Amino acid sequence: MINSRKGRCPGWIPGLAVMLVILLLGPAPATAEYGDVVINNYSDQAGMRPAIFPHWFHRIRFRCKVCHADLGFQFKAGGNDITMLKIIDGEFCGACHNGDIAWSVENCNLCHSGKPNTSTQVHQSTLQKLLAPAKPKAKE
Amino acid sequence: MTEYMRNVLWVALLGLAGFQASAAEEKGKQIVDTVCAACHVAGVLNAPKLGDIQDWMPRLQQGEEALIKHADEGFNAMPPKGGNASLSTEDIKLAVHHMMGLVGESIVSSKSATPTPPGKPAAAEKAPGKPAPASDKVAAGKSPVDSARSVVVEKPAARPAPKPAVIAKASPESRRVNSFNRLLRPAEQRNLPPAKDGIHDAENDGTEVLQHPKEAFSSLDKANSGNRVDWVKSLGGDKITPRYDLLDPDKRPMVLDLNIVREVKGSMPDVVYPHKQHTEWLDCSNCHPAIFIPKKGANNISMASILMGEQCGVCHGKVAFPVAECRKCHSKNKPMKK
User: Fold this and answer.
1) Residue of B190, B244, B313 with shortest CB distance to A66
2) What is the CATH number of the domain that holds A52?
3) Going by fewer Cβ within 10 Å, which terminus of chain B is more open, N or C?
4) What's the whole-model pTM score?
5) CB-based burial of residue B76 (10 Å sphere; 0-12 exposed, 13-18 middle, 19+ buried)?
6) Chain B residue numbers touching A52 (CB-CB < 8 A)
7) Full domain range(s) for residue A52
8) pLDDT tens-digit map of B33-67
9) What mean pLDDT is predicted for residues B224-248?
10) List of chain B residues whose C-beta atoms are within 8 Å of the C-beta of residue A123
11) According to CATH, what is the number of the domain B2-176?
């Protein structure tokens, strides 16, 4: 298959180059849980990993209403202007993640655990799968 | 020139195929390389050798299910879980699947390829005088630990070098291309641990601490899509007891048992919307009036807007069961026309 006895550069060198180019262009397939939300409103700029909210983990413990009615989370990935200041003040995630109901904000890396440059998304959502393939650094 | 171009394409395609291997494929390979290879490279105690068609043929006839069972529970000289109790049944499945793939590739390549002399793996260099195993691609080029392992197990195998089976790296995608539905996730890609799921950073120390979805879902009712969990059924059967109030664990939701039937155009069954299951989870204000005007006939709903993430699609297709489950909503058959 690989014939390097030709008088010129063997076929596998440009082959390797073509492969690398396609690899760099094509994003690696991600297979995280349905409903995992990546929030990268400010993380990348702040030099933190994007935060990942596992919907499934929270569904086991709370009904939708608690966060989406009582705490005021909008039904939109990236649509809530969440900052660490607000969280420390007890808003959004901070309503539970205060060391009282759930572990507190000192555990930075438990939330900020995403691969750098992962765009804000609801992972595996219809929108993401059918209409808008995830692009790195895509702005909402 | 055409041959040259073909070489370029071949290498690009084969290389790509190798790189596109999913996390699960990788895991299967990793388990085979680190655990199974200890016996299955050399054929210790008549273990079928990796990629050896003749060794595997009689076993393949039992079907993959039986092989997984034997590997998981032990069979003759095969210890349960290959002697590594920390492996889960799912791990065993991945490993068996990878081994099946190696045999399949040998069959394909033995039909087309001319025999090549066996390579010189690192293991053979450390154990002079021993025949080089045919499945050199599996044994060679691994970490020193793997090589050392291979050396140890090759000693009892004083057989002459078996016929060279060429193990090419075939694409996992090519095996999947004719599967039932390419949009559905194959079994080995479901409920992966955070470090392998593609969005968590495996180098982050916090990622290791996070709970694995599979562990959390093991006791819940199963479904065919989404998280592969039937959340409504799990809630109804008290498999989960999510709080309705942030602080008060005893607060119960006000459940409204009211079905709304929506007649739909075309041949699809009509939609029955149950308030009951929705009010178990949600507050009225979550949907009314911003998403749905609480008045019959006031909402113009279409699948197009649902797919765009509006109306039902605000939750369904993001976190509640996805729209692939047509008949969960379109559940009321239309009367037959005369």
Assistant:
1) B244
2) 3.90.10.10
3) C
4) 0.59
5) exposed
6) 199-200
7) 37-131
8) 888 887 888 777 778 888 887 787 777 777 778 88
9) 95
10) 199
11) 1.10.760.10
